[in-house]
Amino acid sequence: MTNPIPLTEIWRGPHPESVHLGHAVICEAGGDIIEAWGNAGEVVLPRSSAKMIQALPLVASGAADAAGLGPRQLALACASHNGAAIHTEGVAKWITGLGLSEGDFRCGAHEPQDRDARDTLIRAGESPCQFHNNCSGKHSGFLTLNRHLGGGAEYLDPDHPVQRAVLDAFETVTDAPSPFHVIDGCSAPNPATTLHAMARAMAWYAGAREDGDAAERAAVRLWQAMVAHPDLVAGEGRACTELMRACSEPVALKTGAEAFFIAILPRRRIGVALKVIDGGTRGAECAIASILVRLGVLDPEHPAARKFRNAPITNWRGVETGAIRPAAALA
Prior knowledge:
Elements: E1 5-12, E2 15-28, E3 33-37, E4 43-44, H1 51-54, H2 56-60, H3 63-66, H4 71-77, H5 85-97, H6 115-124, H7 136-149, H8 161-174, E5 181-183, E6 189-191, E7 193-194, H9 195-207, H10 214-228, H11 230-233, H12 239-246, E8 252-256, E9 260-265, E10 270-276, H13 281-294, H14 303-308, E11 311-314, E12 320-326
Antiparallel strand pairs: 1-2, 1-12, 2-3, 2-10, 4-7, 5-6, 8-9, 9-10, 11-12
């Protein structure tokens, strides 16, 4: 990656011990850059931060309305959830309502991040299923769209109608052809793009109108669902959930694997995308919180803000040993 700059620093006492380098872009709804750090043209993998784009055909096609989906399901379609009961029960109800089952998913199973859900499985001697996958809401959306389109069972094939619709939506809202795709942790294709293009896409969401075309109306419904249900988008203790709750105006936030983050600020018609190049989640969380503070939508003294930026680091005895803080460029 070319020309990254310090975004987040880890201090131990008076000494800067570690630094997270990265890139970040703020765009306005027309696509122009308002402010940038590092290399705005860096080719990146947005990973799960692109889920609201992957959900766009679900809504714009009419599939969501045909299936009777509401804001809770749309929030889950954009989620990287903890696998808590609130998430898995919502996914199970959604998918069984379509006459489908857990076996129709192609995302794979993993242990839930939610501790209570994990401990419940252990005590019962049960293994996690695909409902526990943090991407099961996205896959529920894929399956809903697939039923609407009449596609085959292997909905993750890049040439499948579902994934062709997703790629078309992705290239439309980023306003750039994707140079290649990779396979994500949940086995879905994940298109590459530039950081500027991803910020431009988030700004397009922020500027979408309720009286616009089908895609714009779908975009509004998706970010509104995320803002209305931050607990479904991630889960308790997670940066997406806590920072959305803490913002002084509607802001949709979404993390992606390997330290990607986006923000959609509809009242200001701007979008944000950032990437910390070492993949360190703590660096990306501090950086996005710092940008939200910089934009005036997050009080720097709010407990959620203090959890992720200018946050004390303590040792096993509870002794404060240092802090995680924004680097000078974001301070």
